[in-house]
Amino acid sequence: MIIKSLTVRNFRNHSLRNIEFGEGINLIVGPNASGKTNIVEAIYYLSLARSFRGVSDEEIINDKSEYSQIDAIVLEGEIRRNIRILITKRGRSVLVNGKKVSKLSDLTKCVNVLLFEPKDVMLFRGSPKERRNFLDINLSKQFPIYLEYISRYEKALKQRNEILKSSKVDEKLLEASTELLVKYAGPIINYRAMFVKDIHDILIKITHALTGVKSKIDITYKPFVNMSSDYQSIALEAFNRSLESDLKHKVTSIGIHREDISVSLNGKDIGTHGSQGENRLIALALKLSPYFMIEDKDKKPVVVLDDVMSELDATHRDRLIKFLRKFEQVFITDTKLEIEGATRIEIRK
Ligand SMILES: Nc1ncnc2c1ncn2[C@@H]1O[C@H](COP(=O)(O)OP(=O)(O)OP(=O)(O)O)[C@@H](O)[C@H]1O
Ligand SMILES: [Mg+2]
User: Looking at the 3D structure of the chain, how many domains does it have?
Assistant: First the structure.
């Protein structure tokens, strides 16, 4: 897909800005605090109806305004869609070609954005939650049913934790709730395992392209219980084993909400052993991987790299730029970069 144009109104520091984008690389340049990240935040907002900065809508609306609006023209091959998102302090509405859209998956189908932001350099060093989010966001976009499984699981998890927290734990209720968790976790484990298996070779190829070295890369996913024909009884046993501790701490200590993925370079965990640059490049490779899992050229996501270039040395920067030329559409923010053939968008204060 291609984002042809973007108009933001009262979006953060931009009172009104209309931008025409090109295919291939778009370079958004300007001094610090001019509003470059805010522009890519609006692009990201088009795909998930939320900010990637984990803030409430209220923070997005310009300080001097009551609402914020994003309009975009998005092309999927021959299909042209007008997307409008209106954000107010009381809620938001999403229109695709003038028709109200209420299901998130209907928006994600129209705009898919792969984002790399500065904090992603911590992807392998930070908490497992970030890595689970990577799995969950990408799987939900690819398979809307996955999101359904996750929300059912989370609801069951909330119930189980409430039971554990009650002054007198109802054992029957707890048992039923554990069974529900095991049931909903099954398909999630299958999807996660499949995703990690599929991404493996892609990750190796991208890492080689970005680093220029053919090192050994591995990605592993360890579910809390391996999938097998005995899954249900093994999973129930696992919950049984942790029951005492769960009752003591009043929280569910095992399950898909505690799982993790790890990536290793030459047999060593990248989070604990990798350099800052290796962490940056391999996290970038991982975050770009889903692009190559989508076959249909017209449905390929757009790629956003916020502030990534300035931290790389010249050789790695050139290698990355060469690699990025493969993509349908890329947005790069930087304070001073120049890229031959790129569409240049200057943001001034
Ligand atoms: N709701 C808002 N209303 C008005 N201004 C805002 C709002 N939210 C953020 N800003 C301002 O937007 C400005 C630009 O932020 P942004 O993060 O986009 O800058 P940037 O160009 O990416 O800078 P850098 O190069 O440092 O990353 C900041 O100075 C910030 O104070
Ligand atoms: Mg920025």
Answer: 2
